[in-house]
Amino acid sequence: KNEVEQSPQNLTAQEGEFITINCSYSVGISALHWLQQHPGGGIVSLFMLSSGKKKHGRLIATINIQEKHSSLHITASHPRDSAVYICAVSRGANSKLTFGKGITLSVRP
Amino acid sequence: DARVTQTPRHKVTEMGQEVTMRCQPILGHNTVFWYRQTMMQGLELLAYFRNRAPLDDSGMPKDRFSAEMPDATLATLKIQPSEPRDSAVYFCASHEGSGGYTFGSGTRLTVV
User: Fold this and answer.
1) Tens digits of per-residue pLDDT, A44-96?
2) Is the pLDDT assigned to residue B65 strictly greater than 70?
3) Which residue of A34, A92, B17, B104 has the smallest Cβ count within 10 Å?
4) At B12, is the pLDDT very low, low, confident or very high (cuts 50, 70, 90)?
5) How far apart are CA B93 and CA B69, in angstroms?
6) Computed from CA positions of residues B90, B94, B99, B102, in that sequence, does the dihedral angle turn out positive or negative?
7) Which residues on adjacent β-strands are paired with residue A66?
8) B95, pLDDT greater than 90
9) B42 touches chain A (CB under 8 A)
């Protein structure tokens, strides 16, 4: 069993929809990270969370430490949100990341 | 914005050739990582350094891969000899303190 699980592998939505992407992990962590990767592109760090909730523009990330679960929400989705969203965890300051397999999101106009 | 710079962006090489990938981390970031991304395995850690000292290189095939950080502004990942199964995108990332991780744009390696 992977330490970081994301599902489903692929997700399709219509422009304007509210989207939720989930991540579960099975180990103790110091922080959870949400990353975004556009096709053929680099990796961008969206959020780093150790508790509660963070918001940036149309993106909201939440984490429940007790349940070892995090969600990434996208409000008013747009085709430019189409990308792979990767959940990763770190276990200690300045430590390596352990990644989920990522979810491929397609937002149709 | 500060960024992690990787060179080259793309590399096509023949099997058996040496490949060197370079990374310039963000100034002041004391931890530097090398990750490899493939369709089958996703993102995997190859090696990482803290204050230029290697901390973990257990993800690297030791017989052909080597990672070094000759100074604070340069990290290198070398493959010798390269094999077709090494074809992947190699990402460098740097990190400092309680901040997030910053990734480079990656080197897309194709070994034919």
Assistant:
1) 999 999 999 999 999 999 999 999 999 999 999 999 999 999 999 998 766 88
2) yes
3) A92
4) very high
5) 13
6) negative
7) none
8) no
9) yes
pLDDT at A41: 84
**Which 3 state secondary structure label does DSSP give A14?**
strand
Q: What is the DSSP string of chain B?
A: ----EEE-SEEEE-TT--EEEEEEPPTT--EEEEEEEETTTEEEEEEEEETTEEEE-TTS-TTTEEEEEEETTEEEEEESS--GGG-EEEEEEEE-TTS--EE---EEEEE-
Query: What single-letter amino acid sits at A50?
Result: S
pLDDT (tens digit per residue) in B19-51: 999 999 999 898 999 999 998 889 999 999 999
B64: amino acid identity, one letter: R
Q: How many inter-chain contacts (A to B, CB under 8 Å) are there?
A: 50
The whole-angstrom separation of Cα A18 and Cα A14 is: 9
- Could you tell me if A103 and A21 are in contact, meaning their C-beta atoms sit under 8 angstroms apart? yes
Q: Do A100 and B42 touch (CB under 8 A)?
A: yes
Rounded to whole angstroms, the Cα distance separating A16 from B4 reads 33
Which residues neighbour B34 within 8 Å (Cβ) at sequence distance 6 or greater? B23, B45, B46, B47, B48, B67, B75, B77, B90, B91, B92
